């Protein structure tokens, strides 16, 4: 079968709106890499690289060809789905072998730092689009149609990818910048993962006397509880705006705690306390 690669203004080898004959190299085949494979196997010839010993078996089980790093990096489309902490090393290793006109995409939860790494390291003949699928394996359990993905153009045209995501995968595409993404994600993800982490660490949550609002909170926690520690660390430490949002949240929580402590010390508050909490006058 002859592979045809259409070109478009702004760079040779841009993937066509119908990329069925294009190759995609998945670098990183953990939970999210496998999710990508399940939804893109019908659209691309997939190869996957992951240093984990179980990668080969998992790839074959999903109809994906296991490959070494260099082979995956020579694909028409290269998706960086490895932990964010290893992204800089991986980008340095694939930079010399990426083919002209190739499209490199990352799926990291933070955007400013990966964009800087890819822009400064990958050769000029490689197109770059930073993305953040705003869902994970848990929240995509019923399919990905209608879910959101952030797209941050970095180098070269991006409308082919946007069309593919909208028309073929039926995703809601949000075009934005890396900075705008990280500013919003500091609250959207930073606080969600922080609250989920704190509540999970408090021990088993009640399951019997629950309210609808509490059930929704538990459901939200479940969506991120199985994320790897690397994901949590990246969201909280690699987003330059996350620390300020986290500190504001914790400061406000501490202020509420202080105000509630003060209120319970007021004389009028004592009469509202249950009998077993009321203070008794000392015996004289």
Which key phrases capture this entry?
284 residues, alpha/beta, eight-stranded mixed beta sheet, globular, disordered N terminus
Structure write-up:
With 284 residues, this protein is an alpha/beta fold. It is 43% helix and 14% strand. It has helices spanning 31-40, 55-61, 69-73, 87-94, 112-121, 159-168, 178-188, 190-201, 212-225, 229-237, 242-264, 267-270, and strands spanning 23-27, 45-49, 65-66, 77-80, 103-106, 127-133, 148-155, 172-175. Strand 1 (23-27), helix 1 (31-40) and strand 2 form a beta-alpha-beta unit. Helix 4 (87-94) runs parallel beside helix 5 (112-121), helix 7 packs parallel to helix 11 (242-264) and helix 8 crosses helix 9.
